[in-house]
Amino acid sequence: MGVPIAAWPMHSDQPRNCLLVTQILKVGLVVREWEHWEELVTSSTIEKALRRLMTSKEGNDIRKNAVELGNAIRRSMDDGGLLAWSSILSLLVLPDKFISQNEAYNVLS
């Protein structure tokens, strides 16, 4: 928790998870878009994505969001409670950072 994600969806639920990580939670960026899943991914493509994640303003914002989300998840478990899916979605309501629960449900359903 608290670590930025370089998302590279390949099959099954991964495109949806990629959307959650990159567009809703804003704790990662896409290495290769799902629409191009059949194309070969070169080392330069991976390098470019990781450089963006580690050295750009966008990457700085993503890393900051990842730390904030990780801290929020840890705080939600401080009282010995179990973290449920609804609790994760409730974290999306943080002002100016994430989207509302209803928007999250609409995107994920």
Short key terms for the protein model shown above:
109 residues; single chain; globular; 2 strands; mainly alpha
Can you walk through the features of this model?
A two-stranded parallel sheet has the order 1-2. Strand 1, helix 1 and strand 2 form a beta-alpha-beta unit. The protein has 109 residues and is mainly α. The protein is built from 5 helices and 2 strands; from the N terminus they run E-H-E-H-H-H-H. Helix 2 crosses helix 3.
How would you concisely characterize the structure shown here?
This protein is mostly helical and 109 residues long. Helix content is 53%, strand content 6%. It starts with a strand and ends with a helix.
Which spans of ≥5 residues are poorly predicted at pLDDT below 50? 95-102
Query: Care to count the β-strands?
Result: 2
Structure class: mainly alpha
Give the averaged pLDDT, no decimals. 80
Instruction: Give the neighbour order of strands across the main sheet.
Output: 1-2
Broad shape:
globular
Give the topology, please.
Elements: E1 5-7, H1 14-24, E2 28-30, H2 43-55, H3 57-76, H4 85-90, H5 101-108
Parallel strand pairs: 1-2
